[in-house]
Amino acid sequence: LLESEFFGHKKGAFTGAYMDKAGYLDVADGGSLFLDEIGELNLNMQVKLLRAIDGGDYFPVGSSRPRKSDFRTIAATNKNLADQVKKGLMREDFFYRVNVIPIALPPLRERKEDIPLLVDHFLRSYAEEGKPARLPGDVLESFYDHTWPGNIRELQNVIHRYLTVDRLEFMDVGDVADSDGKRAHEGKALKETVEDLEKAAILRALEQTRWNKSKAASLLGVSRRSLFRRMQKFGLFPPILG
After folding, report:
1. Which residues form the Sigma-54 factor interaction domain (predicted)?
2. Residues 34, 194: contact at Cβ < 8 Å?
């Protein structure tokens, strides 16, 4: 099922496959593929994704004909991937392919200046759904005192609960652990967060190659045309030398 989600499948490939289905790689063609919690991928999926990331070629489940997709890969994890390699949980070649331009995203407790922007984002989202979307000042102030172990996802849930039942509830230690006793994954669901990471990766590649688009595209593993489209989207232009 995981392969079907990523690569799509052909009609009749397995029980319940009543029609052809496009996968994430089809949808990401010409754009970006965001791999959240990449440290959880099994070795078999790593092999197949590595082939797709390197050459853009992949096989939908049940098909013997390869498909091609031109996409940029952005990966996120809360694990130490180098340790995953040492433990045999991640292939070394896959590690080096996805670890081209690492960017550390601090937890929410270390960037509380972002809280008003995030709160505004969630309130606007709820308002678009026709829900009452206002937070009293004392509620917003309490957000600065909380440590946010669940990061952005916890903030979203706290806001949602408050707007639904008019009661402010923060996570405690028992809430932070999931059913297996592991800490809850950091929330990275915001589209803005993904785009910020993508923009930062592109800018870093351009600066490393002195704004040589061909070299930057090669470093990022995408076509020059795809890089140009993303540069236009994010308003990235070479500095004017005076």
Report:
1. 1-164
2. yes
Same domain for 128 and 198, yes or no, is no
| Segment 146-159 mean pLDDT | 88
Q: Are residues 18 and 88 in the same domain?
A: yes
34 and 65 share a domain? yes
Are the C-beta atoms of residues 114 and 122 closer than 8 Å to each other?
no
Residue 96 clears pLDDT 90, i.e. is over it:
yes
Place of tokens 């790593």: 46
Pairing of strands 32-36, 72-76: parallel
> Count of H helices and E strands in the chain?
12, 4
Torsion of CA 38, 42, 47, 51, to 10 degrees: -40
Radius of gyration of the chain, Cα coordinates, nearest whole angstrom? 21
Confidence tier at 95 by pLDDT (50, 70, 90) = very high
Provide the mean pLDDT of the chain: 82
Average pLDDT over residues 132-144: 83
Q: What is the Cα–Cα distance from 137 to 129, expressed in whole angstroms?
A: 23
Full-model pTM: 0.56
Identity at 63, one-letter amino acid code: S
Is the Cβ–Cβ distance between 58 and 15 less than 8 Å?
no
Question: Whose structure tokens read 């005076």?
Answer: 242
Domain count, the chain: 3
pLDDT at 164: 76
Q: Any bridge partners for residue 33, and if so which?
A: 73
Instruction: Give residue 188's pLDDT.
Output: 44
Query: Cα separation of 238 and 51, whole Å?
Result: 32
